[in-house]
Design goal:
Blueprint (H helix, E strand, L loop, with lengths): L3 E6 L2 H9 L4 E4 L12 H10 L4 E3 L12 H16 L4 E4 L10 H11 L3 E4 L9 H11 L3 E4 L10 H11 L4 E4 L8 H8 L3 E4 L3 E4 L13 E4 L2 H11 L1
Parallel strand pairs: 1-2, 1-8, 2-3, 4-5, 5-6, 6-7
Antiparallel strand pairs: 9-10
Helix pairs in contact: 3-4
């Protein structure tokens, strides 16, 4: 079985670590603590020029919900086009209507603008009202995959719905479990859902290299990814 491991990274250094650890694909974000927002042009460009593995920036203009004003949608459209111009391999999007349904019209517009890049619909899916209606809509729109925790806070809790979605998808779209995917549970998730792609952030911290820390502040750590932790995900699957 060929498994794909996607790692969410939040800057150049964590992306480098994920690649060194053997990640198959990168979801590139800023502010991962907020669920991820669109990374800067400079970060996308530098990562694209440095790393050859598939690179999927998230297109999310702010944290919070997935109900976007027209001005925010225009930002998303511009960012999708910029990612295509930078030769990214895909983008990660998610838009909902206020009634909890997929924003089909604007999602389709972004998919069309991204072509030939792949499109992943992110965990906005977990906030939608009816996951099976949403599944069919995203297939019809032309998304390549859905990132989901099975409408639970973490994928291990949502394995039953994830398994149902994979069965219902019938190879027409990839269902990728994410959120709380770790070496301790990834094999269980694979066995129970039959998923072949997995998403993990495996966030950790490293001590800051600053020699002077102002006594009024206590920022002494920086976001980090340990390459060995990425490798351990694949080892756990195998």
């Amino acid at each position: 079985m060929k498994y794909i491991i996607e790692i969410a990274t939040t800057d150049f250094t964590t992306t480098k670590s994920a690649v060194e650890g053997g990640a198959d694909r990168i979801e590139l974000c800023s502010a991962l603590s907020e669920g991820g927002i669109t990374p800067s042009y400079g970060l996308i460009k530098q990562c694209r020029e440095t790393f050859s593995i598939p690179l999927f920036p998230i297109i999310r203009p702010r944290s919070g919900d997935f109900l976007y004003a027209e001005e925010e949608f225009e930002l998303m459209l511009k960012d999708v086009i910029r990612c295509r111009e930078l030769s990214c391999d895909g983008v990660v999007i998610g838009l909902l209507n206020k009634d909890g349904s997929i924003d089909v019209k604007r999602t389709a517009t972004l998919v069309k603008a991204a072509y030939p890049l792949e499109v992943t619909f992110h965990r906005a899916f977990d906030r939608c009202k009816d996951p099976f209606i949403a599944l069919q809509q995203l297939i019809d729109i032309g998304c390549q995959r859905i990132l989901t925790s099975g409408q639970k806070p973490a994928a291990p809790e949502g394995v039953d719905l994830i398994a149902e979605l994979i069965k219902k998808a019938d190879d027409r779209i990839i269902i990728m479990p994410g959120a709380g995917v770790r070496k301790e549970n990834i094999k269980m998730i694979a066995d129970k859902t039959q998923a072949v792609e997995f998403h993990s952030s495996i966030k950790s911290q490293r001590i800051s290299g600053m020699e002077f820390i102002h006594p009024a502040f206590n920022e002494t750590s920086v976001a980090a990814i340990e390459p060995a932790e990425v490798k351990s995900l694949r080892d756990a699957l195998n």
